Amino acid sequence: MLIILTMVLFALALSTIVMFISSLLSKKTIIDREKSSPFECGFDPKGSARLPFSLRFFLIAIIFLIFDVEITLLLPLVVVTKLTFIKTWVITGTFFLLILLAGLYHEWNQGALDWSS
User: Known InterPro entries for this protein (predicted)?
Assistant: First the structure.
């Protein structure tokens, strides 16, 4: 019991000493306050809340989320078709991919994927 208590006290003392030394050696400047402030979508949280938001950035982010979710829905189809080769799964996966590609083609035609304009 005495050995365990000694080890716990040693660990506590060592961790306290290391934290104290790191706080003494660290740089504490006003610039560090900027680093510890929240960062949301490239906006300065201390600035005006009425800044215009890039609609192009928003559309690209939404398209990314949609395709990301659809890819996570497609991954189990690969496992299912390897385990059991059922025509229903193949037809479902192909239909899902066709809808996905049609949506991508539509977004491309509308210019939503063109970042430069």
Answer: NADH_UbQ/plastoQ_OxRdtase_su3 (IPR000440), NDAH_ubi_oxred_su3_sf (IPR038430)
